[in-house]
Amino acid sequence: MREMTRVQAGRMAAMNRRVWDTISDPWQRRQDGGYGWRFFKRGGSVITVEVHRLMGPVKRLALLDMQCGSGEAALSWANRGARVTGVDISERRLVEARKKAEIAGRKITYVRGNVVRLPFRNGTFDRIYTGGGIVGWIPDVNRWAREIALVLKPGGRFVYDCNHPFTLCITEGRGRLPVLARARGGYFDSRPLAYYSMTTWMKTKRRVAQVERNWSMSALLNALSGAGLRLVRVEEFPEDSGLGRAPLPGPWRRAFPVGLAMRWDKPR
Question: Is residue 28 within 8 Å of residue 97, measured between CB atoms?
Answer without folding.
Answer: no
